[in-house]
Amino acid sequence: MKTPNLLHALTMDRTERFYKIEMLIRSRGSVRFDTLLSELEVSPATLKRDLQYLRERLGAPIEWDAFSRGYRFAQEQWRGVKHELPGVWLSEHELHALLTLHQMLEGLDEGELLGRHLAPMFERIHAMLGLDEKEARELQRRVKLISTARRRANTAHFEAVCSAVLQGRRLEIDYRKRSGGLGAAVETRSLSPQRLVHYRHAWYLDAWCHKSEGLRRFALDAMQAARLQEAKAQRLSLKALEAELDRGYGIFAGGTEQWAELRFSPEAAAWVAQEEWHPAQEAEREADGSLLLRLPYVDATELLMDLLRHAGQVQVLAPRGLKEAFARRLREAVAAL
Predict the structure, then answer these.
(1) Any alpha helices (H) in the chain, and if so which ranges?
(2) pLDDT-based confidence at 18, cuts 50/70/90?
(3) pTM above 0.70, yes or no
(4) Who has the most CB within 10 Å: 125, 186, 288, 297?
(5) Residues 6+ apart with CB under 8 A from 132
(6) What is the rounded (10 degree) CA torsion for 7, 10, 16, 17?
(7) For the CA atoms of 209, 215, 218, 224, what is the dihedral angle to 10 degrees?
């Protein structure tokens, strides 16, 4: 008698063969019997049983084509219904795209916050494509993601936060504010998590803070501890969340909305014109090639940091407070030389 684990493995293998057969026929149009044997590495009897199961149990319109001497899908829709295998159907191109996404995820996933949970799925994709371990590694090396200034979030904290968001449960955290420097005191907060935010290689939690009785944004790498609670979280509508936290520029939230008016030189405009600084931005090209850019912000901190990247090629036209703050930062930079 076969053990449950062995039965599970055999079932997975057969499922992978089904997808492989479908993928080969879809991508090549017609596939010979000996080619299927070679690709699947099974016996003729096993392949015949697989083809019969696909046709009779899963409704696959696979037929023998005498002209090409191979198996193909019927030219007309079979029984008036477009055929797809049960579950998630992915073409070979879609599987390749997912492998590319996997490589991008590894570049973003500092500390394997997500990757280790998704690894079994990508192993299945390798099997569906017929890739061995060496071929899979070589394929993934063809995509490279370069990241700088990444901030590490504790894996255990991330999992607790993620569970709280998805399960709608309260979260208790020990948090150290960066505004107080390295010596800032650690505060304990009770939160009703609303959503996770990934921004510039760092993770944030948007949550209702029961201590301050308002929506706040917390950096996961500033959390010293995160404890999942049994109590249900106080859920807010996404519309209310977006209205409160998504109005301004960058990751900073809260405060009075203002509009920045900026003029970029023709040299800088060639780059900035292709960038989205804010979803509500307004851009206009001038006759000399300069770019006028208007965008909302509620806190100038991050906007000033990005403007300094274009020092000498950007003018702050308005508001007055932002213009003065930018000029002050430029003077401080020169004084530090």
Answers:
(1) 4-28, 33-40, 44-56, 92-108, 115-129, 133-140, 155-167, 238-245, 266-272, 300-308, 320-335
(2) confident
(3) no
(4) 297
(5) 126
(6) -140
(7) 0
